[in-house]
Fold these 4 entries.
Entry 1:
Amino acid sequence: MLRKTFEHEIQQVKDDVLILGSMVEQEILVSVETLKKRDIEGSRQILELDKKINAKRFEMENQVMILIATQQPMAHDLRLLASILEIISELERMGDYGKGIANINIRMGDQPLLKPLIDIPRMAQRGADMLHRALTAFINEDVETARAIPQEDDEIDGLYNQIYRELMVFVIQDPKTIERANWLLWAAHNLERVADRVTNICERTIFIATGELKEIDSSDDEQRKLNQNPD
Amino acid sequence: MHILTNYQHHTNDNSPINIDIVNLSVYYGKFRALAEINLQVHEKQITAIIGPSGCGKSTLLRSFNRMNDLTPSAHTEGEIRLDGQDINATGIDVVDIRRRIGMVFQRPNPFPKSIYDNVAYGPRLYGVHRRSDLDGIVENSLRQAALWDEIKDKLHQSGLSISGGQQQRLCIARALAVEPDVILMDEPASALDPISTLRIEELMHDLVKNYTIIIVTHNMQQAARVSDYTAMMMIDEQRAGNIIEYGKTDVIFTNPKDKRTEDYVTGRFG
Amino acid sequence: MTHFKELITRNLSARSRRRKATNAIILSLTGLVTLLALIPLFWIVGYVILRGGRSINPALFTQLPRPMGVEGGGVLHAIEGTLIITILAASFAIPPGVLAAFYATRNPNTPLGIILRFSTDVLSGVPSIVIGLFAYAVMVKPMGHYSGLAGGVALAILMLPTIIRTTEEMLKLVPQNLREGSLALGAPEWKTSMSVLLPAAANGVITGFLLAIARAAGETAPLLFTALGNERFDVGMILRSGVQAGQSVWQIIGRIVNQPVDSLPLTLWKYAQQPFPERVEQSWAVAFVLIFFVLLINIAARLWIESRKRRLQG
């Protein structure tokens, strides 16, 4: 078959995407674990992992640029390589969210958690799972799955709202808890953003397979739009 | 205007058409080289014809200016309408068709005459003999071909004494000198070095403001760089050439509709 | 894989030595044989120069022959005769020859084209004396007298196959896309042939002409029954008397071509057989002139081609 070398290099880049993805999954899950267990040392290790993720992302970007320059990709190949650049950028940001949670843990220091973490870990599990399946859909160019996954964002948003309300109750009852509530809210917010970025990855998968580039709106976006003043 | 196509056809814009090919078939003796070609060429745009070797691209190109007539065994069926008039109809003046549709060949082919006489050859055929008129035409054509500054002091030197890239631009100037409407280019840069190639491509961008250009090329990147529309050709089971997809170049190279086109532009064809 | 490498590279140095030796032997052999082939040329030319050079004097070129047995005189009549017949022959042979070559190149497979090429081949094999006889039958007999015109016609027939064949070969060498370039501009076929193809093939075609002319200038047999020979032929005198008598250009030309003329080869043939030693000496001188003439034509052809090449390369 023609372009064996090129095919081989594309396959390597795709494998790297999966590797990067699993590093990010790990960062998210472990950062929440260390927060739950108040494992400060563990959180510091997360910061190290994040550096590795950033380095790998730049390495992959370089690799893709070389392929574009030297192989004149067209049509499907072009869409694939251009999308990979986007996807690794999204993955890197997701990694940053995990780093944010690790930082929260470190800055909380000796202060105890406001409440035992239940929903936040649940958000992290769901988000990591969505990411994992989204990357599988990317490798297989599975358009149906890629269209379906963004729907699960609603569930994540639901969890976020729940956490929000709970934390508000705490703060209303005892205003001195506002700082610690804030930390937890911020962590939850990060995890909600992770799910949004998974949606972007799904959009890219659909683009690679079909050439259509469209935003997939989840229902909370719809809601937010409706809540804005209709002009 | 009709849309009689049996292939993926997605130019669907309203820019004007000046050449309309209807059910064109070209035979060499009993062998059918082109099978029922249908194509509309947009005016003052660059249309590229791509496809693997032997798929009939050059045969199609040469149909536009009836150069296939020079092959004794060739015969043509179907219509090629230039501004509404079928150029294959009986009674049509071939000389006039060839004036209106000029051609630039793969290997530069300047005549063994001076540069001036090369460019003036065409106008002289059409009765222009006054020196002042010819001077004007020669300068105008050479300027349009981006060659004037380089050779304005060498007009009386032989057309063969300049470099390959310059010779090709001279051939372009020669074709422009008779005021054509359409310029056909058969792999115009394949015999040239990369810098000359890029110059010719720049030139095409300038020329297309005033002329319809149709280019056959086996260099896909060139087709992608240069053209507004691309037609993809392939041979069928009877080894006759067909157009399998025709659309805006951007789409053909980022998201073609036919798998065969995809395989060809990504280099997986084989 | 290394097994093959071994096969190829074994005994390299011995082979190399053998190769060099073989090269040297073959090269020397070729050189030797070439020299052998050149011997007749140098011998002939050398001998003619030596033998004929003795009798070269200005009178040879400016005077008419003296009566037999008398010393002195020249071969002006033969020189003028050769020039006139050659010019006539070239004028008769070149236009139809070139046109026929064009036709044959463009239509090789039509009946006429096939007949043309076949006839050309046959004609080139016809003995020159037969051609002379033919010219006698169609020109001398009806006209009632020998003439330079008939001689010119005979030589033209002789030249025709060479001209057709050379022109055709040269035209075939012109790249096809030159013709296409002209036709694509809207030029008709004949204009393309005249303005583009012929100039492109000119070098070879002109060489063909000159070679045909050189050959014709040296022919004797066809002139035996046509031009015959004329020791009193003097163009200068014809011109003077014609002008005095107020004749038109055509009339003067008519007088020149309508009488028997001599040519250099013909003169050589006659003189060499005569019992008079002066004539025999003069025949050697004529040989000298002839060879010189042929040499001149070839050199002129070379120079012309070189200068044309230089002009075209800019």
Entry 2:
Amino acid sequence: MPFHSRPRRLAQAALTVALVALLAACGQNHPDSIFHRRTDFNRDVDYLFKVLIYAGTAVFIFVEGILVLTLIKFRKRPGQPEPEHVHGNTTLEIAWTVIPLLILILIGIPTVRTIFKTEAVARSDALQVEVVGHQWWWEFRYPQYTTTEASGKVDTVVTANELYLPIGKTVNFTLHSRDVIHSFWIPALGGKRDVVTNHTNYLWMTPDSVGSDEFNGACAEYCGTSHANMRFKAFTVTQADFDSWIAHQEQPAVGSETTGPALSADSTAKVTTATPGVGAPPSAGAVNAQVAQAGFIAFPRDKIPASGVPETPLPAGLTFDDNLLASGNVENGKKLVTTGMCIACHTEHGVTMMQAVVGPNLTHVGSRTTIAGAMYPNDPRHLARWIKFANGMKPGVGMPTFGIGQYDPVTLKGIVTAAGGFTDAQIADIVAYLTSLK
Amino acid sequence: MATAAVSPSYAHAESTANSGIWSWLTTVDHKRIGILYLFTALSWFAVGGTEAVIMRMQLQGPNGRVVSAEVFNQLFTMHGTTMIFLVVMPLSAAFFNFLIPLQIGARDVAFPRLNAFSYWVYLFGSLFMNVSWLFGMAPNGGWFGYAPLTTMAYNPGLNIDFWMLGLQILGVSSLAAAFNFITTIINMRAPGMNLMRMPMFTWMAFIVQFLLVLAFPVITIALVFLQFDRFFGTNFYTMTAGADPLLWQHLFWIFGHPEVYILILPAFGLVSEILPTFSRKPIFGYPVMVYSGILIAFLGFGVWAHHMFAVGMGPIADSVFSMTTMLIAIPTGVKIFNWIFTMWGGNLRFTVAMKFAITLVALFTIGGISGVMHSSPPADLQQTDTYFIVAHFHYVLVAGSLMGLWGGIYYYFPKFTGRLLSEKIGNWHFWLTFIGVNLTFMPMHWSGLYGMPRRIYAYDAGQGWEIFNLMSSIGAYIQALAGILFAYNIFRSRKHGEIAGNDPWEAPSLEWSIPSPPPDYNFEVIPVVTSRYPLWDIKHPELTTEVPHSRHGDERNDVSMGGKHVGAFHDHLAAGTPEAGVNPNAKQASSKVSLKTAEELGIPMPYPTIKPFWVALFMTLMFASLLMIHKDMLHLAVAGVIGFACLMAGFLYAWLTSPLEPAHH
């Protein structure tokens, strides 16, 4: 069949290229691979995956081998007699019913064992983490760390899109959704488990085979416009660092707390262990000194691998005068945040007026490495633009537009001062304040 | 009988039925309806393929910005919905329509006008759903439309309304067609065609119709709940009222998993026709092939929750659904082995149709193996909702269903049109498809296992996903090129392809005993069937005498029923073609074919009628009127529903009271 030759040669060339590309790909770094065996969960899955892939490969080679052999052996040749009309062979057909059954039993036994192991109740001394899925960000609460108020127990450690896990300790996630169905997944550590509205789901794992490291997490169930932008970070840290981080999280941010009359009037200050600074907010230098004293309060940014730093490009046409950021006034920013529109959606422990839970908890926002569902790095440059025009930076986001002169695609209005809008200079002040909330 | 008119046989069918657009609008001929299905589905394949190519352009590199997040979500929703409901199912329906009556020796389907109705409902439903693009409101909830994302609280636009109403409309089409084919297959088989002599394609089609009848009511219920929620404020999926979102998931997947077999079994049937013909051997283990098809369909209703291993059903449910899912691999594996052993010992002729059929066997195996990997819940937790599962079901539906359907088109195009598709262009089409499919979907296994979730419109560099996404995108472009070649091949061969003759492939079943394209009455004399492979019995009686499919004592050439001579296979062959019998080199001969018309033969044929067209149109408009509720025009919606319902009922009444065909003489 001479007319086959050209396409067939094309196929051979393509196969070669594909193999080379695959080999090249195997040499790459795969930070989110499920094969790292860093947790008990992933080792169990890895074992099961090996059983499956070995059995599957054997079946694949066997089937394709017979197929290719058949194609070569029985291709039509000139002068061949009519083939005999064979209608079946009971022995053969029983064989290829029973042998797959045996292979499936081989797979089925470890499968069921692993199901019952991984879906058992987590050990009682596990660290409890409550995961709340929102469109489109993650809220993480540590319910073992609470304070008692008039209204009952209140979680003191609440963070957004960043999860701290002590190395070697089992962590039990309790999964809730605030709106639609999401799915909680840290590929390199384990999962995934759907976060189902009106349901409570559980997932546990023990990150016992890791060092201090950063892992990417993501929402794996399609949840609307910005599903792709619902990412998060998991940091595995030593138990000592974890304790230090918890102790720090339980307090209001370094530099946030003042005894100013507007804020201290309410005697039911949420955080009982707070040791507020006195008087006016400290200068940046003083904050740094206090941060240094507090020990481990955030995963060091210089230890985050490049794969853990978000790279979403800023939208074209979104301008901000970055020179203003250097001269942001913390005090003024604080006033804007704690008395302005921000209080409608956000919480800041220690600030009585800010107890809303629509958006992420801002108590220690300055120590987080990312914003907007781990879509952008948390630095003044991105934060400023985020406050100015979040809708342009994250499709469908609930965060309103605040930059004066910006056009809000949700409300279909231009933003003015009366609508709670901010000038670039005011935004620079807010950024300075938020950045100081270590 | 050989009058001297020199006209190619393909032209003849057009002269018996009026040509022109009106004849297509009013046709009730199952063959023309099949052709309508075929070309409509291929057009939607171009649309769905374009959607896929745009998505692959977006994902070609990190943080692509070809389309916005919202448009990307609409693209993948419509890509899935289009490919499943507007391409693969209707392509299968094209073959059901065209082939079932021919394979069982009937003159048409049981309800020819209902058949036309099914097609028009499909066409209008598919147009309705895609009109949403013009408003920028294409469905955006994923093809699986999980509640509560599809409820008014989270999706107040018309997007989901287009989707759910469109699916309801298409469901009417599928159900009407399914009842039609079940009735046809049960009642209209030629004398001697018992169930175990039916061609394998008809068998698989038969099974699929039962799947449709049993599965579609479930999605209909789920969609009715959603419609009531969205239009009338009920609380089936209202989370704040305490609804359970898993209600939708269970209902959807009880439909959704049998749907997978609705998509794959027709392709299995086509492959089971193609492989024996080009191996020149009967199918290996015919009864086992039948029973495994039935078993796959039966088990297919007991595995739905394997789509839900991540939702937290608990270890017992996970284990049970894991086991039932693994069981399905057995009958599927049996089919694979039986196909291979159909070829074993044959004289394999590698036509393009054969290549596509072999590719299904080879590549569906990959999809089957990754399917077993998904059947293990702990492993599935790491794989589901990643690109690994995207790879899995594309190996099932593209490397499986579509390969079988493309093979079927190359195989049956001569019967559809009287002309062969070009093998030369076909080879390019095949190899580009083969390369493109593997280059697109094989790397997705890796991008999934390396942590890439599905349905994301953008991703960062540095995750180790770039090379795989680039490969997938290049593969998609190659597939697009293959699709263009395919379109060109069809376009060109319709007018300029080689004349096929009755039986260009030396195939065994009844449809190859009549001219290509068949006259509108199909069989001048209804054939009497004495075996599974009637044409081979004639050509090679020495090979087929002692075979299990012929009942002992059957007279091969002269059949009596109830003591009365009803005819013989040779009578039918002599009547159907002037050349009397099968001429494998019929290219010259058939250009001299001249067939008698139905009137000359005294065969009553159904009247053409426009009424099913109007009933389908007004039904679609009736559904569409509901959209006005969300435009705050309740009165318009009510008026539209009532008005169009009256029009629909009026035309339905006219349809039911007019005679189907001339009174029998």
Entry 3:
Amino acid sequence: MNGSRAASLTVAWRFAALRIEGFPWIPSAILGTIALVAIFANVLAPYNPEVGVLGERFRPPAWQYGGSEAHLLGTDHVGRDVLSRLIFGARVSMVVGFTAVIVAGVLGTTLGILSGYLGGWVDQVIMRVTDTWLALPALTFAIFLAAVVGPSEMNIVIILGAVYWTRYARVIRGEVLSLRERDFVRLAIVAGCSKKTIMRRHILPNVLNSAIVLGTLMLGVVIVTEAALSFLGVGVPPPKPAWGLMLADGKKGLMAGYWWLTVLPGICIMLMVLSANLLGDWLRVKLDPQLRQL
Amino acid sequence: MKRFILKRLGYAVLSLLLLSLTIFLFVRLTGDPAVLLVEPGASKADLEAVRAQLGLDRPLWVQYGQFMSSLVRGDLGHSFYYRTPVLELYLSRLPYSLLLAAAAMAFSLLVGIPSGILAAVRVNQWWDSAGKIFSLLGLSLPSFWVGLVMILFFSVYLGWLPSSGSGTALHVVMPAFALGWYFAAAHMRLTRSSMLEVLGSEYVKLARLKGLSEALVIGKHAFKNALIPVLTLAGINLVIMVNVAVVVETVFAWPGVGRLLYEGIAFRDFPVVQATVLIGGAMIVIVNFFVDILYAVIDPRIRYER
Amino acid sequence: MSAILEVSGLSTQYVGARGTRVTRAVDDVSFTIEAGRTLGIVGESGSGKTTLALTLMRLLPPAARIAAGSVRFDGEELLSKSESQMRAIRGKRMAMILQDPMASLNPLFTVGDQIAETLRAHEATQRRTAWERARGLLAAVNIAAPERRVGEYPHELSGGMRQRVVGAIAISCGPRLLIADEPTTSLDVTIQAQYLKLLGDIQREHGLAMIFITHNLGIVARMCDQVAVMYAGRLVEAGPVRTIFNEPAHPYTRALIESIPRFGDATERLTAIEGQPPDPSALPPGCAFHPRCPLVVDRCRVEAPTESRVTVQHRTRCWMAAPAPADVLKG
């Protein structure tokens, strides 16, 4: 394949994936749609997602034999409408996902700044803890914590925040260490600003970029972890419609071939995570090429 | 070299201590750990007995001492459900998890490394693009969903592969793939970027200037250098696989330690949960230590550095 | 003396990512080198010297292509050779030394291994023999205790020693031409002189033709017989070292020579050349040097100067250089 033809094909691929140069329209549109669906769930969903009609159990999607237009995407094992549960599930995923990312982000960024800027024993303590927690796989740790405190939507957010802050702390600390040597920080020190002021007014705005990029990258991870937790039964408790929970329920009908209960929620998860990852990748390249190490 | 090993050993021990401390503190954090550490459906008297046994009225560091001393003796508690010591239970399940992890790791390396190398050598061409899709999907799709869809396809629709249990070689195919895809993607990405970096290095340039054949340049000079970070990651990933296989093992009813953890949650068997997490974390620390040593063996620069 | 290397009209271009931007890295370069002689190629960063060297070795990155010209090495045309033919030449008949010796050597293999592999690749030497010869080569480049050094790794040697190893690799198969791309730039000043002496000794002993790429005129004065000055990819002046230093014809060369600080000139300020070298992808029209030239006239801004001869051996590209009288050219 000669050079120019390969080059034009690569350009076409790049457009299709919308990764470089241009803003990733498709992933952002997907995320935006999910967000809108989550906000307007009450209006959009045709049925109550938590209540089922036993007579309507295991109905396949409308286009299959046995399906009806009353339930476009079918029903689950207790007769709840799948479409409605998916719509409200978007709300759960969005809320849990974003909140957890923000909690982890705030906690991790703060500790990262403190650790990187103050140094000394503060740094040592925070770093040792971070290293240890990083050694523990997030999922296992989250399961442990969920077993200890008991599952609920609120608890899950706290648990996810507690598990993932270490990822922020590491990166932010690294940035702060190099920021510390920059001239404008040294000027502030010479000018007599208090440590607190410097951290707040000089360091924080400069690490915000990395924090945001990390946030978008973490979003996908957090959602998958939450889905896994719900699947195992220690995440969002029933009858709330979390996509992960739907997968757990879907397993019950799997051997009988009730595919829509497994495939559809998974597709939703996949779309959200893929979009978050693509958006995060683009942001990472755009906002700071140095962050490519992430 | 000796100093290096000792230093790393020190770090490992410190991490293990911190790990046990973390687990210990979190359990105590909930207010009344006795509720967790007693069988479901126990009477009030039982609760009191457990409280006394744990010494919950004593100062925290005494409790920790008690905790650590039983750990060191190998006593990680008793499973309520199985009525056996947890350590025994864990060890009986571990081989299955190791088998699954080994299969998944083999898959991830056999697919990941060659495609990573090819993607780097043929950068920005078709293979690279295909690789990027493969790795993007692998990193984004939840492994348990992949497993579920595979069951739907290969067990329910096609009837080719068994959907649960662990009897034959066929049983391990789907779980290994479901578990391994994510890691294959990660390994591929790392191999590719590592290879690209090495291919642009001065010593590769000099190797070409020496007139060495392309096979020798890539196979000898580029390959070994590029592989270092990948193998390091792979070593660590092996143990991580054992831990995150929880969901895959649950989906496929594979009798490993992941499934054990699930049972611990499902049956409210807290000693099992606590021990599994503890051992899992300890394994990672220990493996990290050995990987560091291995790194130093492969790369002579490291030995003299620290 | 027959010419080892004859380069004429060589042009190398880099093509931008979308096939649009064309950067002329090397533009219409011609020179000749004979056995046992050294040509110095002088220029600032971005002048195209390294691209020139890589072009001669036919080791350009995929984005580059040789647009025109001919390179005759030992009577053979290099530009029409296949890759496998070039590979037989590289390292064996033509060798190159790079600037940073730490980066040039693979950190995971011993020094002896890296010398031996050239021998094994080109001369099908057996392992044991190659290892022995590697030891001998280390001695030839004045490394003490070669039997010990041969089994050591690059990071265990000092910078000067590493560069000697690179030199040993280069001469291992007895090449006819050695290209040295800024070989002493990464070395301590005290080690530089030793290394240059080593290169000189090697050249005399093996009758090597050498191309010495540098930005340091002092080294050129010491090591080279001929010198070629590059600016923005073009050869703006070329000729015998003595002549060029005493009577530079091109304003750029003149400025370079004048900018060398001299002992005893305590009163004069250091002269630097005004302005910056141009961006290779956006060269000014006409003569590339005209924005910085003290002698610039209108013609320079519009028309790129063609090559003219100051004497038979001394060429330059400048509208303002004094043209030689016709009888001198004929002679």
Entry 4:
Amino acid sequence: MSNVLVYAEIREGVFKGINAELITAAQSLAKETGGEVQLALVGSDVDAHVGEAQRFDLVRVFVAKHSELAHYSSQGHAMALEAIIERGKPKFVLFGATAMGKDLSARVAAKVGASLFTDCTEVGLKDGNLKVIRPVYSGKVYMETVSKAAIQMCSIRPNIYPPAERRSSSAEVVEIPVALSADAIKGRVTETIKATTGGKDVTESEVIVAGGRALKSGENFAILQKLADVIGGTVGSSRAAVDAGYVPHSTQIGQTGKVVNPKLYFAVGISGAIQHLVGMRTSKVIVAVNKDENAPIFQKADYGIVGDLFEVVPLLTEEFKAMLGK
Amino acid sequence: MKLVALIKNVPDTEAKIKINADGTDIETQGIKFVMNPYDEYAVEQALLIKEQLKDGSTVTVVSLGPDRVMESLRTALAMGADEAIHVSDPAFEGGDSQGNARVLAEVLKPVAPDLVFCGKQGIDFDAAQTPPAVAEYLGLSQALIAVEFKLGGDGKTATVKRRVEGGDEIVTLTLPALVSCEKGLNEPRYASLPGIMKAKKKEIKKIALSSIGLGAGRVGKSAAQSHGQKFHPLPERPPVKMIAGEPKEQAKELVRLLRAEAKII
């Protein structure tokens, strides 16, 4: 009867999409253990999200509110979550493998003496304990590991589990008092700056159109943006394109950039160095467009086109437009 | 000001990772180990602050691991760090991130750092877990994945810009604090030849289990909270389907396949 607690990420007043994915993972664990699925809502004005949380099939929604939690703080949110864990007594606690989830989970694990596996791509049970698969060595190999701690935490990558179904449930709402003073919090988020590139972050996107040095300039990335706009994608890049100054580092995919896991990945004018491959090779479908037929990217792709990207990409955009009736 | 950089030693980014015969570990033979690339930004940031303050502030680099980490500690000394600590004891082997963080926190207690810098993650286990755990054990404020760092004029606060999904966050910290570093924070310097010569002569301080306030059961393998570690190769992809023809035909066929075969659009 081990309970499973999901930490709900709320950023800029938005109940993030990862939460529904974590609930799916939690429901599958709880089905095996017979425990409750619980959700933790932490912040100052989280009442607005209670209704949204109750649409999922959960047993309990814990709400920890405090004016000092209006802006995210590692210390403050960790204290609130500790109070929720004390009350809900979960054996398993799930976080998103996001900037916030990674910031919070290790502090909470240290606080309550839990084990923590970060950035997992598969989560299950072995003899009632958390068994996960996580990429290591920059995604060059996978590691399987099993927890033996009393409280077992993990963070799960976005786009691994489908979002849980929404239907109205009768989840009980439990308020958890949090004792916090302003001095207990020595660091907090004081401002959020949206990326000028606009749109979703590459790590949150289901479709990515990534370009390399072969794009030849920052302006030329506009042809990738046009394709991305038509198919609801986000523009990414290789390290070579970032080092050449074409696009900001926030778009970089690979070893010294971000690791992505979209449904569809376009590698345009990217040769496919190992440092890039480790950042995208778990993508469900990979399309490579390159003028060099021997480019290593073709060995990792599902579909390949040898050709001039400046010719092929605009044609693709037109074909997608026609198909999608745009 | 007491500045600390936590560093570790990892396989070079180009290293081919091979799994050993029984799948319990990777083959380390023939692998070149280097300072974790993100830790270079940490060392550089500590040095930049020391140079900015010019008030006798010192930079201490600390590494927990086998003897090979000494090479990275020497590199940091050659870059300009004042002091190096090698945390090493057979009892520390096989520790998990939380256990290692507990050890590092104990080592740092007497150092009483104002600022601790480290890489955003080690590119070996990619857990990104030790830095925030060290911050928790020491009661430090934290800002992870930093791309900009500004020390407040009073020397008691700092403002950090950190990378998050879809943008950046500004985190305001009261020191003491821990900051984990992302590419773009600075340009790590190369060690100068005189720096390398000087570093060779510097002593690297050793800290073993007996010099910290933790029992053997709280560190290393005996405190690790996981077991059954097994490594797997990545699943192979089916062979690529190359689409031939004129560009217009290629585009049309790809879009058709993505809908009809891959069922993705």
